[in-house]
Design a protein that fits this description.
about 140 residues; alpha+beta; 2 domains; two-stranded antiparallel sheet; about 15% strand
Length: about 140
């Protein structure tokens, strides 16, 4: 009976942590210190594995297997997918370097046209239909 509770607890931990993770990701508010998330994913994996080593029953066994797989997948993904900040990252308040690029209408955009204007550079993860990482520029006169 205890193994069934471990399977259900594993699924509950991974579900709650993923809901909180995706909500933070959608709000572009993932914390720099992700230790709480990583610990919860490791806990979900450990609970699921412990349940599978015992006799969880069919339903709890399925839940334990699914949550163990998801937890381990996320832990491996986080371990190999760390984003590094380059040495030349733009900080808030700094001038942007000169660059040219194509805009959404295939027209050449030159950063010098922004000289003297207030610019907000936003990382856009909600509209990733054409590129894995998009930046949106908002300009005020």
């Amino acid at each position: 009976m205890a193994d069934e509770y471990l399977g259900f607890a594993s699924l509950a931990v991974i579900t709650i942590s993923l809901v909180l993770w995706f909500r933070a990701m959608y709000q572009v508010a993932i914390p720099r210190n992700r230790a709480v998330y990583i610990i919860s994913w490791a806990l979900a994996a450990a609970l699921g594995m412990a349940a599978l080593l015992g006799d969880p029953g069919k339903l709890a066994g399925v839940f334990a297997g699914i949550s163990s797989f998801i937890s381990l997948f996320i832990l491996v993904t986080v371990a190999i997918g760390g984003q590094k900040t380059g040495a030349h990252a733009i900080e808030v308040g700094q001038n942007i370097p000169h660059f040219t690029a194509l805009d959404e209408h295939k027209q050449t955009f030159d950063s010098q046209t922004l000289s003297g204007r207030l610019v907000n550079l936003l990382k856009d993860i909600k509209n990733m239909d054409w590129a894995p990482l998009c930046y949106r520029i908002e300009i005020w006169p």
